[in-house]
């Protein structure tokens, strides 16, 4: 199922996106966002630069660069937050835009040992706390 660019959360960069995430910055072929909902401290999303792309449709070079971006973020999250495990999820049933969820999990933390919830709506930070988290992540990219 393919969604048009006009309905794409990432391509439109609209209020819905801004209510869910904060842009951290640009990577080699992706953008990095911090989820506002932080039940999984440090949870981010690596979003490929172009709409409607399946992983298998990327050239070898673009795929390798995309996974380099994903690995760079995973490394930065591990260094910044010291989670027990960094989980990766690529789900796009209704949103045709390649992206990977980077979800740090903590042994005594929320949802450890199970699949992460898309949006638990339990933990939100202050603006100052979001800024602090983003700066810490950026310093480890």
Explain the overall architecture.
This protein has 141 residues and is α+β, with helices and mostly antiparallel strands. It contains four helices and five strands; from the N terminus they run H-H-E-E-E-H-E-E-H. Strands 1-2-3-5-4 form a five-stranded antiparallel sheet. The longest helix is centred in the middle third of the chain and has 22 residues, at 60-81.
Write the layout of secondary structure elements.
Layout: H1 9-12, H2 15-20, E1 21-26, E2 30-35, E3 44-48, H3 60-81, E4 85-89, E5 99-105, H4 127-139
Antiparallel strand pairs: 1-2, 2-3, 3-5, 4-5
Helix pairs in contact: 3-4
Task: Describe the structure in brief.
The protein has about 140 residues and is of the alpha+beta class.
Taking pLDDT < 50 over at least 5 consecutive residues as the criterion, the unreliable ranges are none
**How are the strands ordered across the major sheet?**
1-2-3-5-4
Rounded mean pLDDT score: 92
- The total of beta strands comes to 5
Helix content: 25-40%
Structural class: alpha+beta
Percent of residues in beta strands? Answer: 15-25%
Most strands sheet: 5 strands, antiparallel
Report the principal-axis shape.
Answer: globular
Report Rg: 15 Å
End-to-end CA span: 34 Å
Looking at this protein, list some descriptive labels.
141 residues; alpha+beta; five-stranded antiparallel β-sheet; 21% strand
């Amino acid at each position: 199922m393919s969604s048009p660019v006009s309905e794409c959360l990432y391509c439109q960069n609209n209020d819905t996106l801004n209510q869910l995430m904060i842009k951290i910055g640009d990577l080699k072929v992706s953008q990095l966002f911090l989820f506002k909902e932080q039940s999984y401290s440090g949870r981010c999303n690596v979003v490929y630069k172009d709409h409607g792309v399946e992983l298998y449709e990327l050239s070898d070079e673009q795929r390798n660069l995309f996974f380099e971006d994903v690995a760079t973020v995973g490394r930065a999250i591990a260094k910044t937050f010291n989670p027990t495990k960094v989980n990766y999820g690529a789900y796009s049933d209704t949103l045709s835009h390649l992206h990977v969820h980077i979800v740090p999990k903590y042994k005594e933390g929320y949802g450890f040992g199970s699949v992460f919830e898309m949006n638990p709506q339990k933990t939100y930070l202050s603006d100052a706390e979001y800024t602090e988290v983003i700066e810490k992540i950026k310093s480890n990219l």
